[in-house]
Design a protein that fits this description.
about 425 residues, OB fold (Dihydrolipoamide Acetyltransferase, E2P), alpha+beta, Butyryl-CoA Dehydrogenase, subunit A, domain 3
């Protein structure tokens, strides 16, 4: 039997060594795999896809706010305002603390005032530039007949107003003389004996003997001034020249100045009066005060009239020059001069713009200094710590208060070792 098997094995080996034998053997093996009976559960079908592998572990940790801020001032000073308390909830932007900043507020207000002044000056320069441009346009365009006629009318009206002012000067001088004379002869008449004589005397004694001597002499001088003044004003009439009126007004100023000095000294003597009832002394003082007010009013009127006449004459001269320029026509030199005037006005405006920028920078700098003296919340949160009290000195950078935000928390935990456990299924699977 053994020999028979050997013979069969030998024949089989010889069969397999042939190509047809090899093909036959492969087909037999495939048929065995397909039809061989299987045991156990059916295979699990799993679809492969990308995903996140997660592993959960349980540890003990501490929660803490994500935002934990310590706030301080950028400058030192005395804490003057602290409207919050520990545990109080606050909103972003809310004022939390403020240093005493009276000097900073004053500097800020001054900077704002300087800015307003600079802006107002710029408006003036802008108006001046527009006026110079308009004048340049007129010069380049040349004079028109209607412009010359208008300028002639303007000149005639100005001359008429000046003539009327000079005619009124007679009334001003005569009225001033009467007021001063009334002050000497009536308002202070009770204070003197023999007032209009060569030897006037006070009607009372003064403890200021020098003042008494002075006023008795000055009363005589005042009387002589009034006589001289009367002679001067009597020379004036409707045909007097403007120069005569100007001279008369100037002389009137001199006369009133001498009278005022006399009345000032008289007040000194009256104040030091002796042997008079208090009521009488008070009446004398009132009389002297009234006389001084009246004489000073006359002096003011004379000065105002002289100034008005001078101003009107300057206006007339300006109109005459403008008329002459229109009649002569604009020369190249006049046009060039006006162009230079426009350029200068433009330069003034540009310079003022620079002044405004400097003033704006000053306002910003002053505002920044005030900002350094305040602390505002940068987040919503809760006050957890306050160090200084109101009235205490605080240094720049020194923590004043601390706040936290409870809207966002983080967990802080310590892991000694983290082991990722890998598992392998013992179930037969097919991957699709």
């Amino acid at each position: 039997m053994i020999e028979t098997i050997k013979k069969i094995s030998g024949k089989t080996w010889l069969f397999l060594k042939k190509p047809r034998g090899i093909i036959t053997a492969v087909l037999v093996i495939i048929l065995i795999i397909i039809f061989y009976p299987r045991t156990g559960p059916a295979p699990e079908i799993i679809t492969v896809k990308k995903g996140t592998i997660m592993q959960t572990i349980i540890v003990t940790g501490t929660t803490k706010p994500v935002n934990d801020l310590s706030l301080s001032f950028e400058r030192g000073g005395r804490l003057s305002y602290l409207p919050v308390a520990v545990g109080q909830k606050i909103r972003a932007g809310q004022l939390l603390a403020q240093l005493s900043a009276g000097d900073l507020s004053a500097q800020y207000q001054q900077a704002q005032a300087q800015l307003k002044i600079a802006q107002a000056t710029r408006n003036q320069y802008q108006a001046a530039l527009e006026a110079q441009k308009a004048k340049l346009a007129d010069v380049q365009a040349g004079a028109r007949a209607e412009d010359i006629a208008a300028k002639n009318n303007e000149l005639a009206l100005a001359q008429q107003n000046l003539d009327s002012a000079y005619q009124n000067t007679i009334n001003i001088i005569n009225g001033g003389f009467v007021s001063v004379d009334d002050a000497l002869r009536k308002q202070i008449s009770d204070l003197f004996l023999n007032a209009d004589s060569q030897n006037p005397k006070l009607s009372f004694l003064s403890t200021d003997s020098q003042a008494q001597t002075d006023v008795e002499f000055q009363r005589l001088v005042a009387a002589n001034e009034m006589k001289t003044w009367q002679d001067e004003k009597n020379t004036l009439n409707a045909t007097s020249t403007p120069g005569n009126f100007d001279w008369a007004l100037s002389q009137g100023q001199i006369h009133t100045s001498i009278i005022l000095k006399f009345l000032d000294r008289l007040m000194d003597a009256t104040t030091a009066g002796a042997g008079l009832p208090a009521s009488t002394l008070s009446t004398y003082k009132t009389s002297v005060t009234t006389a001084r007010i009246n004489v000073n009013t006359v002096a003011t009127n004379f000065a105002s009239q002289l100034a008005s006449l001078k101003s009107q004459k300057i206006s007339i001269e300006k109109i005459q020059n403008e008329l002459a320029l229109k009649l002569a026509g604009a020369t190249d030199q006049a046009i060039e001069q006006q162009k230079q005037a426009v350029k200068q006005a433009e330069a003034n405006l540009a310079g003022q713009d620079a002044q405004i920028q400097n003033a704006q920078a000053g306002v910003a700098a002053a505002g920044a200094q005030i900002g350094k003296a305040t602390i505002n919340a940068t987040i919503d949160g809760t006050i957890v710590k306050i160090l200084p009290n109101v009235g205490e000195m605080v240094n720049a950078g020194q923590m004043v208060l601390s706040l936290v935000s409870l809207n966002q928390l983080e967990i802080e935990a310590t892991f000694l070792k983290l082991t990722l456990v890998k598992s392998r299924s013992t179930t037969r699977s097919a991957l699709l």
